[in-house]
Specification:
381 residues, seven-stranded mixed β-sheet, 14 helices, 13 strands, binds pyridoxal-5'-phosphate
Length: 381
C-alpha cells in the first residue's frame, strides 16, 4: 500500500482542501460505461454521441440548436464569426472576466471595448453598455460571471433597440435560470465550455454554442469544420477545425442529468458561507437564488494577500478570478487606461475564490469557515 506523506496525523486536519476536486465532483458518475461505448463503436469524431449530446443539451437549455466545439474560447470565436463580426469591428464586454471574450474578439480581428461592471454582482452593468453604444459596436458579450446571470433581460432590451446582437458567455453558468429561461437562451447565441472544472465538465476540453436561429446554427456547423458546405467544398470563410471528441460527448451525456443537483449542492455550500461570514468585513455574493449556478464562490476583501496566505497556512486553497483587468493585459494596447474602469479595477484587486464544488464535504466547508473566522478574529473582529 502507498503511504501518504501525512499518514499518522489526524487525516481530517492534515488534508488540504483544494479549490476544486475532479475526483470528488465525478465520484457518483460512471465514467467507464460511456468511454467503453465509444471504444466499442470505433467511431471517434462527429458521431452518434455528439449528435445526441447536442440534442440533449439544446433541450436542457431550452433552445433549438446546439453546435459543439473543441473548447469554450472557440465557441466564443465562432459565435462572433457566425454573426459576421470581423476586422476593425468593436465588441462591448466586461473587463473582469478572465480575458476569454477578449481572446475571441482579438482572434477575429475585432476590438474589445470594456463597459464597467455592477459593484454588487460584478457582472457587466446594463448602464455601462448603454453608455458604450456611442462607439457603434457590432456585438455585446455578456459573461455570466461566477455562474450568476447578468442583468441579461435589460442588456438585451438595450442592445436590440440599437440592433446589436448579444452573445452570452455561459462558461461558468450551465443551468442557471431566471423565470423559465436558462443561461444561453436569452441572447442571439450562448457559448459554453466543458473544461473539467466547469459546472458541466468533460475529461478534457470541450465547448458548445446554442442558439434559436437555424441559419446561425447552420453557419456554426460549417465554421467548426473547415467551412465545409459538404465534404471538401468550402463555402464559408473563416472556418477551422473545432470539434469535440465522441468520448467527451459521451461523458457529458452521462453527467448532464446530474447538473441541476450539483448546482444545488454548490449553492448550498455558498449559502453556508454567506451566513457564516455575515458580520465579517468581507463582501459576499449578493444573492444565492437559482440565477446563480455557484461556479465560483467569490468574496471581496481588503489585504487579499495576507488573507490568502493565512488560509494557505491552514491548508485551504484559494485563487483569484481574475487578477488582471482585460484592458491592462500586457499583450495588447487598449484605448482604455488604468483608472478608466474603476469598479472593474477595484474588483480585480479584492476578489478571492474559496473552495465550492460538488463533493466538498460538510467538515471541509466547516474548516474553511473556521479559518476565515479566525483570520478576522485575530484582527479584532
Ligand atoms: C472557462 C471559460 C472560458 C473558456 O473556456 P475554455 O474551454 O477553457 O476555452 C470562457 N469564458 C469563461 C467565463 C470561462 O470561465
Amino acid at each position: 500500500m502507498r503511504t501518504l506523506p501525512n499518514s499518522g496525523m489526524n487525516p481530517g486536519m492534515s488534508q488540504k482542501i483544494p479549490l476544486f476536486s475532479a475526483q470528488a465532483a465525478n465520484a457518483a458518475v460512471d465514467l467507464l460505461g460511456p468511454a467503453k461505448r465509444v471504444l466499442d463503436s470505433h467511431w471517434y469524431i462527429l458521431g452518434r454521441e455528439v449528435t445526441e449530446f447536442e440534442r440533449e443539451f439544446a433541450n436542457y437549455c431550452g433552445v433549438k440548436n446546439c453546435v459543439t466545439t473543441a473548447n469554450g474560447t472557440d465557441a466564443l470565436e465562432l459565435a462572433l464569426r457566425a454573426l459576421g463580426v470581423g476586422p476593425g469591428d468593436k465588441v462591448i464586454l466586461a473587463g473582469n472576466a478572465g480575458f476569454y471574450g477578449s481572446t475571441a474578439v482579438r482572434l477575429v480581428g475585432a476590438i474589445p471595448y470594456y463597459a464597467d461592471i455592477d459593484p454588487q454582482t460584478l457582472n457587466i452593468a446594463a448602464d455601462g453598455i448603454r453608455e458604450a453604444l456611442t462607439i457603434n459596436p457590432r456585438a455585446v458579450i455578456a459573461t455570466h460571471l461566477y455562474g450568476r446571470l447578468a442583468d441579461i433581460e435589460t442588456i438585451i432590451d438595450i442592445s436590440s433597440q440599437a440592433g446589436i446582437p448579444v452573445i452570452e458567455d455561459c462558461a461558468q453558468a450551465h443551468g442557471a435560470f431566471r423565470g423559465d429561461r436558462r443561461a444561453g437562451s436569452f441572447g442571439e447565441i450562448g457559448c459554453f465550455s466543458f473544461y473539467p472544472t466547469k459546472n458541466l465538465g468533460a475529461l478534457g476540453d470541450g465547448g458548445a454554442v446554442v442558439c434559436r436561429d437555424e441559419s446561425i446554427a447552420a453557419r456554426l456547423k460549417k465554421l467548426r469544420q473547415y467551412g465545409w458546405e459538404t465534404k471538401y467544398v468550402v463555402n464559408v470563410p473563416g472556418g477551422r477545425n473545432s470539434r469535440i471528441d465522441e468520448i467527451q460527448a459521451a461523458i457529458l451525456r452521462e453527467k448532464l442529468p446530474f447538473l441541476d443537483a450539483w448546482n444545488s449542492e454548490r449553492r448550498a455550500i455558498a449559502a453556508k458561507y454567506n451566513s457564516a461570514f455575515s458580520g465579517l468585513p468581507v463582501q459576499c455574493p449578493s444573492s444565492l437564488d437559482v440565477d446563480y449556478a455557484a461556479h465560483l464562490y467569490v468574496i471581496q476583501v481588503d489585504g487579499r494577500e495576507h488573507f490568502r496566505g493565512f488560509l494557505e497556512d491552514q491548508g485551504i486553497a484559494t485563487d483569484i478570478h481574475y487578477p488582471v483587468p482585460d484592458h491592462l493585459q500586457p499583450a495588447y494596447q487598449s484605448s482604455q487606461k488604468k483608472g478608466d474602469l474603476p469598479v472593474t479595477e477595484r474588483a480585480c484587486a479584492r476578489v478571492v475564490s474559496l473552495p465550492c464544488f460538488p463533493g466538498l464535504g460538510p467538515e471541509q466547508v466547516d474548516r474553511v469557515i473556521e479559518a476565515v473566522r479566525s483570520y478576522f478574529e485575530q484582527r479584532g473582529f
